[in-house]
Design goal:
about 20% helix, 2 helices, alpha+beta, 3 strands, three-stranded antiparallel β-sheet
Amino acid sequence: MLNDNLELPLVLTCDASSCVLGAYLNPYDGGEKPVAFAPRVLTDALKNYSQIDRKAASIIFGVTRSHDYVDSNKIETPFIILRYLD
């Protein structure tokens, strides 16, 4: 991991599979130079969640783990359906 220029905006990338949640931060400069990683093995209860719920859980996990770096209230996601969840 490289501790690059933290003046650049950071991108939080989150994803979920059937057995793990993952998130990482990297500067928004077009490169892949992660600042921090955060993995989490799913509990038995989370393994029973639908894929969309696991994706939402990965975003919540990622923001929770990186709250010191995330100073904006704007969160973007490529998963269009997550934008409409309450």
